[in-house]
Amino acid sequence: MAAETTVALKDGFSTTITLTGANVTFWEKTVTPPGLDGGEPIDITTMRNTSVRTKSARDLYDVTPAALNVAYDPTAYDSIMSAINISQSIVITFPDGGTLTWYGYLQKFTPEALEEGKQPMAVISLVPTNITDNVETIPVMAAGSGTN
């Protein structure tokens, strides 16, 4: 098998996110894509072990929430409210044009204090549901050009 050639992104600018089912726009300042978590190990130690505890990895993994620091328009508060808990396709577009698409919902919208001389900011949390139309659906990565 030939070695896979990859090129690491050199800069996170400009990573964007699209909520396909919401009529709301956020302006991304920082984007933390969803992570992957294999869960706690399964203890498979028995009375026949002689020196150490033994463990096994789980078969299933979890896709952890994405977190964003965003600018927003306070007049869009109603639109943001109507987007909460709406399951939809969510797409992160990376600087090289690659995309990560998953199903999830806007779980949290936490505005920061509004103050003179500062853009209205908020923290949002997007939870992967890993299901659409009652079918288990894992995130899909589509490669970009590999450079930025």
How would you characterize the overall build of this protein?
By secondary structure, the chain is mostly beta strands. It has one helix and 13 strands; from the N terminus they run βββββββαββββββ. Strands 1, 2, 7, 8, 9, 10 and 13 form a seven-stranded antiparallel beta sheet that branches. The protein has a two-stranded antiparallel sheet with strand order 3-6. Strands 4-5 form a two-stranded antiparallel ribbon. β11 and β12 form a beta hairpin. The model has no long low-confidence stretch (mean pLDDT 93).
Radius of gyration: 20 Å
Overall strand count: 13
Q: What percent of residues are in strands? A: 35-45%
Task: Give a quick account of the main beta sheet: strands, pairing sense, barrel closure.
Answer: 7 strands, antiparallel
Give the % helix. under 10%
Given the C-alpha coordinates, what overall shape results?
elongated
What is the ordering of alpha helices and beta strands? Answer: EEEEEEEHEEEEEE
Structural class: mainly beta
Number of structurally distinct domains: 1
CATH class: Mainly Beta
Average pLDDT metric: 93
Q: Regions with pLDDT < 50 over 5+ consecutive residues?
A: none
Keywords:
mainly beta, seven-stranded antiparallel sheet, 148 residues, Elongation Factor Tu (Ef-tu), domain 3
Secondary structure layout plus pairing:
Elements lengths: L15 E4 L7 E6 L3 E2 L4 E2 L11 E2 L5 E2 L2 E6 L5 H7 L4 E6 L5 E13 L9 E8 L2 E2 L2 E2 L3 E3 L6
Antiparallel strand pairs: 1-8, 2-7, 3-6, 4-5, 7-10, 8-9, 9-10, 9-13, 11-12
